[in-house]
């Protein structure tokens, strides 16, 4: 958690520098700051600071039991156990990504193409959810 906290502080500092530079740049270029970008970059700084502060606050109980990712002598098998599984041979994520991408493209162009792709999106979600219930992958 300590390393993640430091990474988020560095990222937050980067966003602060970029927000200041962006506001100065747009003020010089256009005569006034471009508020959407300034607010977005400032909020990125603030939110990464929130998460870093939360991790710093929650790290206090872990001073007694240091997490494996914070120790230099830790082994890989000391970390948390596997929470899920990954099936590299599955075609369902590719189908789902393509259909969701086409549906988003359809909504950008007009809402009507998304209606044609909606059954394929539903088919991809159901197929990916139930791929281990049929065939040779059944358990």
Automatic annotation (TrEMBL):
EC number: 7.1.1.9
GO MF annotations, alphabetized: cytochrome-c oxidase activity
Domain of life: Bacteria
Subcellular location: Cell membrane
Bilayer topology term: Multi-pass membrane protein
Pfam families named among the record's database cross-references: Cyt_c_ox_IV (PF12270)
Recorded family membership: Belongs to the cytochrome c oxidase bacterial subunit CtaF family.
Protein name: Cytochrome c oxidase polypeptide 4
């Amino acid at each position: 958690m300590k390393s993640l906290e430091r990474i988020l502080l560095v990222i937050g500092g980067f966003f602060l520098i970029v927000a200041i530079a962006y506001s100065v740049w747009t003020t010089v270029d256009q005569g006034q700051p471009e508020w959407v970008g300034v607010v977005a970059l400032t909020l990125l700084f603030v939110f990464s600071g929130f998460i870093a502060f939360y991790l710093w606050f929650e790290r206090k109980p872990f001073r007694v039991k240091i997490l494996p990712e914070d120790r230099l002598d830790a082994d890989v098998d000391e970390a948390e156990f596997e929470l899920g599984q990954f099936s590299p041979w599955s075609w369902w994520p590719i189908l789902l990504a393509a259909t969701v991408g086409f549906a988003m493209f359809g909504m950008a162009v007009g809402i009507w193409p998304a209606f044609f792709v909606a059954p394929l999106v539903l088919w991809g979600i159901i197929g990916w959810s139930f791929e281990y219930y049929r065939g040779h992958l059944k358990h």
